[in-house]
Design goal:
globular; about 85% helix
Length: about 150
């Protein structure tokens, strides 16, 4: 089962890599996405860190549902800003998001804390990267041109 968990997280990570470093860097991001994407990443990180300190499954479920709903908030922007291949990739990201969170639940229930901590660290670093790169380094200078 660890292989399945890791496979889901690696697949999601690869999709995120292509979304971020191919599509986002190519087209640039307007303010809504420059701020919204780190928020999405942070709210994906929250259930991971929650499992390391708390044990209430209802709160965990709420955090997972919140994260899964929150990632859809940009779709009205993506409809205008993204080309078809990027939108297709987003569809895969929407599919894998709750699967990854289910894998987190399974890892949590089976006390696979080390792989949860490693994944949480990766998500945290990616969130920090997004904040530093898109908000502080690039800001308006790398805004999408449509």
């Amino acid at each position: 089962m660890q292989t399945l968990i890791l496979s889901a997280w690696i697949f999601q990570g690869l999709l995120m890599f292509f979304d971020e470093f191919i599509f986002h860097h190519k087209r640039g991001l307007k303010a809504w996405e420059r701020i919204g994407h780190p928020i999405d990443s942070f709210f994906f990180f929250v259930p991971f860190i929650y499992t390391q300190f708390f044990h209430n499954e209802y709160v965990f479920l709420f955090l997972c549902v919140l994260s899964s709903i929150l990632v859809t908030k940009d779709e009205f922007v993506h409809a205008d800003e993204c080309d078809a291949p990027e939108q297709w990739l987003h569809a895969f990201l929407f599919l894998i998001h709750p699967v990854s969170l289910f894998c987190l639940w399974f890892a949590w229930k089976n006390q696979l804390n080390l792989i949860i901590q490693i994944q949480a660290g990766i998500i945290f670093l990616f969130t920090v990267y997004q904040i530093v790169y898109w908000i502080f380094l690039k800001g308006k200078r790398h805004e999408a041109q449509n």
